[in-house]
Design a protein that fits this description.
single chain; globular; 3-stranded antiparallel β-sheet; mainly alpha; 6 helices
Length: 157
Amino acid sequence: MDSLLPPIPAKRYFTIGEVGELCGVKPHVLRYWEQEFTQLRPVKRRGNRRYYQRHEVMMIRKIRGLLYDQGFTISGARNKLQELVQLDRELSRTASAHTDLPDDFEASEGVAPAEMATPSPAPGRWLDAPAGLSIREELMQIRDLLSSNETQNLAII
């Protein structure tokens, strides 16, 4: 899916036309998805022009993959995104809870302590498939991007 789409340029904001080209979706579909997926909240400026940030472009690609590639319905994709957000919250809570390691802790060679503290998903969950690993990695990248965006926004103030 993502291999067929162009890489996302290093920009702060993208117009709806640019996002449409980057994600392979027409602008009217993006406007519809904004109504259906509460996670999509582009900044609106003069004349209601929409400006999307990088994390929103990544989320649109995820929505596109769920709908077009994996065959989810709108409500099914909405539920899956909510699951992904919940999983990301659990991962960040678990990772922050394990940042204080005891003095006698020895990390395994080649494995960072944060990776060791990440819980395995419960058996029978959708992450059991190898493709789930890439979703988890994508979520962690989105979380890192959101964290860096918050830091940049604070620096501007």
